[in-house]
Design brief:
Layout: E1 11-16, H1 22-38, E2 41-46, H2 51-63, E3 68-71, H3 80-88, E4 93-96, E5 109-111, H4 115-129, E6 134-140, H5 146-159, E7 165-172, H6 177-191, E8 198-201, H7 204-216, E9 226-228, H8 234-242, E10 248-249, H9 256-267, E11 275-276, E12 282-283, H10 288-291
Parallel strand pairs: 1-2, 1-3, 3-4, 4-5, 5-11, 6-7, 6-8, 8-9
Antiparallel strand pairs: 10-12
Helix pairs in contact: 1-9, 2-3, 4-5, 6-7
The structure holds beta-D-fucofuranose.
Beta-D-fucofuranose binds next to helix 1.
Length: 297
């Protein structure tokens, strides 16, 4: 059957991670809005941060004989078995926003940013802003997820050249605003407010939570404490404009159009690149205000 847009009506299963961040919710909206617009029958599962729920969702998509599967893999390992089952059923699997440790033959393509580069960009900004010297609190994402692993590595590798910059506190905030707030409260208690010169948050939501915790402790995020995040979500750009945050780098979240396009192409026998990458613009006080009104989500 043809939809109003002229495409064959597809049935696609989407195993989403959950709703831990503003970024994640916007990505969900991109995929559900695009499905509506393109007349795609979308089976949406919110896995509540559990890999087991994602594996169960994929198995039910296979049983329902969907045309394609979109998976945002919560962690990087443990996918071989279930992706082997999807492959055996001949169903293309498009990975979105997180990569996995598995043979590339088990999936069609991964649409994902360069997260090592993002960590490096945050490190580069901080090394300059701190003049090569200072104490940093690191807020990490979901343990074992590809952005947590890669962003940590990109930052640490770059900072090897700066021996006078120290990570004085380092904990996961699970990519959530409340996690960022709690970890920052604990860091302030453990290290002392006056001993913290910067915060490196592996996503913007945790940076925003940390800003709240610092303000409650009478600190001045954005001025005496430098704050860098990742994603470039709306509230982070607003915080940069307000002067409470210093830097962020975009993670693409307009995932609907490229994901469904990849499924159509895979079904048509087109050979896709294994890694589909988007631009990652950087934002500071110099360009945040101009960018904010044109953000799609
Ligand atoms: O940066 C973060 C999140 O996997 C790239 O997950 C994604 C990350 C994103 O919830 O905000």
């Amino acid at each position: 059957m043809a939809s109003s847009s002229g495409h064959k009506t597809l049935t696609v299963g989407f195993a989403q991670i959950g709703a831990e961040s503003a970024w994640r919710t916007a990505e969900t909206n991109s995929i559900t809005d695009t499905a509506k617009k393109e007349g795609i029958n979308l089976k949406f599962v919110d896995a509540q941060q559990q890999q087991a729920n994602q594996i169960a969702a994929i198995r039910s998509f296979i049983a329902e004989k969907v045309d394609g599967i979109i998976l945002a893999p919560v962690v990087a390992t443990g996918w071989d078995q279930v992706l082997g089952e999807a492959k055996a059923a001949g169903i293309p699997v498009i990975l979105v926003d997180r990569s996995i440790d598995a043979s590339p033959s088990l999936y069609t393509t991964v649409i994902v940013g360069d997260y090592v580069y993002q960590g490096k960009a945050d490190a580069e900004y901080l090394a300059k802003a701190l003049d090569g010297k200072g104490n940093v609190v690191e807020l990490e994402g979901t343990p074992g997820s590809s952005p947590q692993i890669d962003r940590k590595k990109g930052f640490a590798d770059y900072m090897k050249a700066y021996p006078d910059i120290h990570i004085v506190y380092d904990q996961t905030g699970n990519f959530t605003r409340s996690g960022g707030l709690q970890v920052m409260e604990a860091a302030i208690k453990a290290v002392g407010a006056s001993n913290i010169n910067a915060v490196y948050a592996q996503n913007d939501d945790m940076a925003l939570g940390a800003i709240q915790a610092m303000q409650a402790a009478g600190m001045q995020p954005g001025t005496t404490v430098k704050v860098v995040g990742i994603d470039a979500v709306h509230d982070a750009l607003q915080a940069i404009i307000n002067g409470t945050m210093n830097f962020t780098i975009q993670t693409d979240l307009i995932m609907g159009p490229p994901a469904f396009k990849a499924i159509r192409e895979a079904l048509a026998g087109v050979k896709l690149p294994k890694w589909i990458k988007a631009d990652q613009p950087e934002f500071t006080i110099a360009n945040a205000a101009a960018a904010l009104p044109t953000r799609a989500y």
